[in-house]
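Give me structure tokens for this 375-residue protein.
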Amino acid sequence: MKIVVIGGYAPSLVNFRGPLLARMVELGHQVHALAPAHVPDVAPRLEAMGVDYHMIPLNRRGLNPLADIGSLLHLKQVLVRIKPDVVLSYTFKPVVYGSLAARMAWVGSGKRVYAMITGLGYAFTEEAGLKRRILFNVAKGMYKSGINACDGVIFQNPDDENFFHKLGVVPERVLTTVVGGSGVDLEHYAEAPQPAGPSFLCLSRLLRSKGVALYAEAAARLKARHPEAVFRLAGPPEEGGDAVTPDEIAAWRAAGAVEVLDPVEDVRPLLADTGVYVLPSHYREGTPRSILEAMSMGRAVITTDAPGCRETVVPGENGLLVPPRDVDALEQAMERFILDPSLAPAMGAASRSLAQARFDVRTVNDAILSFMEIA
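Here you go.
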């Protein structure tokens, strides 16, 4: 069977979908992966797995109708050439244009199209204002068009599944399922000994909707009372209205309460040196991969009671949930771990157990392949 997987960011084919692609190849399928511009090692790494890589013109940010129509037609041409039996797209534009292109490219029956919703992003946050309302309605209409071309949709949390059904985005004939995010490789992210002293880490793109500014503010307050505590933040800077500005990042570094680090390829050393992982996002996450990695390594979690994030925490067992956008609640939750050093090891052990039970990448991938009827 020929399978095409379409993503919006080439490195994610390896970092997030690598185990799924490898499993498809292991099952004897001919697998093709499509994504826009990539770092140089993506193609060789995919080819080493037995996956054929095709670079496509697709801008994953912004709405440019002419460019997007060009991307749609290019995708159609690639799919006509490959002639796949199954297409799986993930992230916003691939779900929309990849699904539409698949239907445009095929004549006859027996072909299947699937979408994976890995998080709904800024357009579906609860921000006020005309711009956000316009983005919401445009994104809703685009998702509806793409999903209408699908046979099935894979969600990473039940909130998004219910939300899409409530919006009327998913037709009744389209099947849906919920899986445990992207899963996590329990062997690669092996449980690590707990570090000495209170320490906190947030790994995130530097976006306001990811809560990084709240994390920096809570850290500054706590550092004044608990100078022994360590607070780290690592992730790539972003552009646009939701991005933290370079001046803000410089101010955080100058103040010294938060160690603002550059993005890293391998997050395991940072997680190993951390007692508590924090992601105060009010973004509509799928199921945050960074939290799953922290859980797998045996780390307690503080995150928000928001779609996707709440799926990772059993409150009081492996971590704490706080309301989105509530810096006071975030500060109080973090201080609990400083005042009670026994909490992080106990909750970290529970995180590892929960990762084993619900988020093992092999179990997640088997559920995806079973739903797509290609296992």
